[in-house]
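Hi V.,

You were right to ask for the full record rather than a summary. Here it is.
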Amino acid sequence: MASSYQSILSDWKKNSFAPIYLLYGEEEYFIDDLIKYAEHNILDESEKAFNQITLYGKEIGYKNILDNAYQFPMMASRRLVIVKELQEMRDIDGLEVYFEKPSEQTILILAHKHKKFDGRKKIWKTAVKNSVAFESKKIYENKIPPFISKQFGEKGFNINPRAAQMMGTYLGNDLSKIMNEINKLVISKAGAKEITQDDIHDQIGISKDYNVFELMNALGKKDELHSYRIANYFGDNPKKVNIVPILGALIGFYQKVSVTKENLNLSPSDLAKKVGVSPYFLNQYTEAARNYSAGQLRKAFKVLYNVDLKSKGIGSVGTPQKELLRELIFGLIT
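Predicted structure:
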């Protein structure tokens, strides 16, 4: 039975448990967070010694799971068996018997991370059908700012759209890193409920004047002087700013500009949905779409692709980051 991260966590906090939980997917953050909660909260401290066990798929076979899951609890109402790295277990098909007839006195949590399983196989069809199954999917980059806003909201904080966009641009879609920064900001802002751009600058160490967000603005306006100033700052501070996330952010930016250019006839609200941005940022993309011809946008992608290859040592070995960035700006602006 398919479920969600929030519904599973909500049930656990209400002390409501199913016999089997199957946590799987490519995004490890939500799986790890559920496992962490289970390890610390499902059983009382006095119950854990005899009734809570963690197994690792690489080290065990299905019989180890069956032996532990079918044991009776000692001085407790239930057992908790957590299996990590399930994707590494070689004889996983043997678990089918347990999926069909689980112990009512055991909570079995199976964590299958980093890759999808073959849903066509009988074992997985049985597993999903007879368990509370949660697929933890990777969040696309355009969904990161709304995710950040939602996480702050659940903690009682507001974050303005530009600050959420800036945070997402710099941290990418590494949810563990994002949640770590969110938690640090929440602690540092105790007593205040608004997260601003200044907070993002101060907490994450992003320059207020020289950051990738300002670079996108400058490139969109074709402001050559300011684009080079920002690129020079990045080049002079390679320990603070790495070219890889900059390229990723710029590729995303030019993709959105291209979609905007193709759909300028739409209403602002429809165009924002089509581009996948908040209406708050739409002017940035419409201005850039008018400043770049279709041919210039095609050229921009070629420039980004070539500089990306060089940054990885393909076709150019040991080229300084500053030189690559200046080459990048020249190719994008001219």
